[in-house]
Each structure stands twice: as structure tokens, then as C-alpha cells.
Sequence to fold (431 residues):
Amino acid sequence: MRKFKILILTLCVSVISFAQQTPGDKQTTAITIEGATAHLGNGDVIENALIMFENGTLTFVGSANTKIARKGTIIDAKGKHVYPGFIAPNSTLGLVEVDAVRATNDDDEVGAMNPHIRSLIAYNTESKVVESMRPNGVLMAQITPRGGRISGTSSVVQLDAWNWEDAAIKTDDGIHLNWPSTYSRGRWWLGEPNVLKENKNYAKEIQELTNYFAQSKAYNANKTAPKDLPFEALEGLMDGSKKLFVHVDNEKGITDAINFAKAENIKHLVIVGGYEANNVVDLLKENNIPVLLQRIHSRPNGDDHDYDLPYKLATQLVKAGILVGLENAGDMERMNTRNLPFLAGTTVAYGLSKAQALSLITLNTAKILGIDDKVGSLEVGKDATLFICQGDALDMRTNKLDQAFIQGRNISLETHQTELYKRYSKKYNNK
Fold:
């Protein structure tokens, strides 16, 4: 009996030690941040800034020299920096916990055409991966499904919540389409050479998409047939309530995707990946199409590409007048999402200003996701989703957060990783 009690106590302590941090309480007292350098996210920077927010909403953003009464709790942030919360698009945060454990994997649905699959209801707010984003300033994410030709519908969440209903900032913001590849590799497991070759089924796969959209339009025109959830989900692309996020990298694919969207009368198109988007900037500008650029800490895809093309691609597109946001999808994408600010920082070394780089993960992304009325910049009337940093948040050496707020709530920056860091620091420091 004694051994049983010890076992139960050990299990309880383990659960408590590694539990998700409790979401912050709703803001009840006004908060004033004074003296910091405020990076607004819209290109402006205010030295010696004054920021005030109540009930989760920014009520004043300006100079600390302004003669105005300070309200509530006053935070002296002299010598520090304030930023809007960073936004991670095209992310599978909360959909997979441990890749090797199938029961924790819920990012890919069976089948090829799944526009009706909603990633939001599978989002796990208790994820330890999710909580590890916040100490780097990543406070929001677009939760995106994977797999198939049409993966499903994404939603935008804030990363400190009890459940997915509380987390949602914008539900069902868009449908994700994996554009057919113009090239394929040989099936080495069948003895074929593992080299790129033309995809002979490319035209056929596009025609299948065209037929599928035609069937959807016919169904939604009268809806007299038995209820069809996939077809109904596509209706939002036609009436403009949803955006179509096309995952495509090569020049021909991007061009064909744009022509497909125009032919189908899709009102809002976003290119995700866009590795060769610099070759079609005129077409993108002409059709006012933004790009969520692939992870820039990557090697070039082609043997004849510049060795630093992934690093300078954001600069090329921004200078061409394209609305650009950064994503961090790739190998280990969920864990690497925390490094999003450092991807933005890399673009500064390749031609962007710090203000432009910051916009790639704040206001630009908010505009692309359709949430710029709420977040993305420090402006009166928007959500008080922001953080106080000891230094430059785009530099991994100085990205050290003191406090963070989501919708005015003072959130925890502790994670299982910070707990382990403190634990082992004490072990070695006490020797």
C-alpha cells in the first residue's frame, strides 16, 4: 500500500511539474508602459514612448512627453523595447505534439479533397510546443492543416488559452490548396533514378481541380442535392469570406495558380512558399497578390540559383512592391516557429530596414490573414497583444522578454524548457 501511495504521489508531481502554464487572467486594471522604445509594426518607431491599454484594448500610443494622465499600473520600461506580438502563418502548432507518436498527430486528414476539414477544432491549447513560442514573442499563429490536394481550412489563434474557442482570433480564415507539381522525382524504391523529371499528369491534375470547383459551384447554386460539406466549404472562396492559400514554389506553378484563381473568380488569393516569386513580380503586382514567403534559412533549390537567394528573396519582393509575410514551415517546423523573429532579422542583413523586417512578422502578416483591424501593430483601438523586450527582438542575442500581454492579459513566459534551464543552472551554480 505504501509503495502504491508513493507511485501516485510521483505521478502527480510529474504532471504538475510539466503542466501547461495557466492562461493569464482577463485584464481588470489599466496598464501604462512608459519610457521604452516602441516599434509599432507599421514602420514607425517612437523613442521614449507611452503606451496605455484597458480591457484588452490599446487606448494611447504616443510620446511619454505628452501631458496626459497615466492610468493604472505603471511599468517603467526605460532602456527597453516594446513590440506588437509576432504572428506565425502556415503553422501546425497544436496539431502535432510528438511526431513519432501517431496518437498525437492530427494535422493530416485522409483523402485528397478536404476543404471542409477545420484545423481549429483539433488545436491543442495544452501543447508544450505552443507554450515554448511565447518567450520569443510569437504570440499568435495561423493553424494550418496538411496533406492531400486541398488540405482543409485554417484559423488564426492567440497562444494563451484554455481551449480552442478561447484561442480563436479569426475562425476559418482560408482554404489551403497544394498546387500540383510541374516536376516529380523518380520512385527510387521501384528502381527509378532519383532525379527530377516532368510531371506528365500535371495538366490532368489541374483539370481535376477545375472539375471539382465546377461541381462545387453547381451544388452551391441550388443546394437541392444531398448536403455536401466539402462543396459548401468552397463557397466562401467565391463570396470573399475566405482566402485561398495556394502552396506553390515554382514560376510556372505560381503563374498557373493565379490564372486558375482568376478563371474561378476567387476573390482573395495568397501564394504560400513562393520560392520563385521574384520571377513573376509583375503578375503578382498586377493582381494584388501577397506572398507568405518560405523559410528563408534554407539552401537554394536549384543548382544555378544564387547561393543566397532564399536569404535575399524577401528584400527583392518588398522592393518590388509585393506585400510579403514570413512563414517558417519546413523540417521541424513546429519547434522552429519560435525562431520566426530571427528569420526576419536575417532579412536586415540582406537589404531591408529593421522596420520593414519587423512588418514581415507583424502588420504585413496581419493584413494577409485579414486580422490587421485587431493586431499586427501598436495602434489605438487594436488588441493589446504586445511584449516588453530587453533588446532587439529580431536578434537572438538580445531577444529576452520581460513581460508579454495577449489581449491585455499578462501571460506567463515560463515553459518546461525555462524550468529545466533554471533547475540545471542551480545544480551547476551551487557547486
